[in-house]
Amino acid sequence: MKTRKIIILLIYTLLISCTLNPLIKKNGLANLSTKQESLIVGSSNKNDTIKYLGETIFKEFPDNSFWIYVEMNEKNSYFARKEIIKHDVLILKFDKKGVLEAKKIFDLKNFNHISYDKEFTKTFSMNETATKKFLNSMKQRIKASQKITED
User: Fold this and answer.
1) Confidence class of residue 13 from pLDDT cuts 50, 70 and 90?
2) Which residue in 13, 23, 16, 11 sits closest to 81, CA to CA?
3) CA angle at 91 for the pair 88 and 95, rounded to the nearest 5°
4) Which candidate, 30, 126, 23, 130, places its Cα nearest to that of 78?
5) How far apart are CA 32 and CA 86, in angstroms?
6) Distance CA 108, CA 89 (A)
7) Which residue intervals of 18-129 are DSSP H helices?
8) Dihedral pair phi/psi, residue 52, rounded to 5°
9) Could you tell me the sign of the dihedral formed by the alpha carbons of 104, 107, 112, 113, in that order?
10) Which of 31, 53, 73, 78 has the fewest CB within 10 Å, making it most exposed?
11) What is the model's pLDDT at position 126?
């Protein structure tokens, strides 16, 4: 009788802790792809960017000409594996006056299609820029998540 109550209590606890809705962990700026549409190349400046997107933590030093915004949504799949649902990276380039010169947005589909010229690209471990370090870490994360989802 006691073992039956313990088993029922154990099954009840397991059922209570399970959920039908997956847990989605959100990192970075929400709705980045729609918010970036309000920035116009050639007319928006750094103040407009802060107004629409907020302050960024990824700035390339010393001149702060490149700003990076990130949005990433992860879902816990079976057996404690994480699956990346959405991954957007927005790279903004400003001129010396603070006017938006160029913007590029990368999503999960086109992030791996970034081409690098391997003949002329040099890597110096101490002299890498913040942008290069960030893009390399994002590329490694996406490749790792794709390996997990393929398994």
Assistant:
1) confident
2) 23
3) 165
4) 23
5) 11
6) 9
7) 32-35, 46-53
8) -85, -40
9) negative
10) 78
11) 46
The string of pLDDT tens digits covering residues 71-125 is 888 887 766 677 778 888 888 999 888 899 999 888 877 766 666 556 665 555 5
Spatial distance between the Cα atoms of 4 and 1, rounded to a whole number of angstroms: 5
- Enumerate the β-bridge partners of residue 94: 100
Across the strands, what pairs with 26? 73
In total, the chain counts a number of residues equal to 151
Q: What is the DSSP letter of 99?
A: B
Task: Report the C-alpha gap between 133 and 58 in whole angstroms.
Answer: 11
Look over the chain and give the mean of its residue pLDDT values, rounded to a whole number: 78
Copy the structure tokens of residue 24: 């989605």
Cis omega (within 30 of 0) for bond into 22? no
Q: Are 64 and 94 in contact (CB under 8 A)?
A: yes
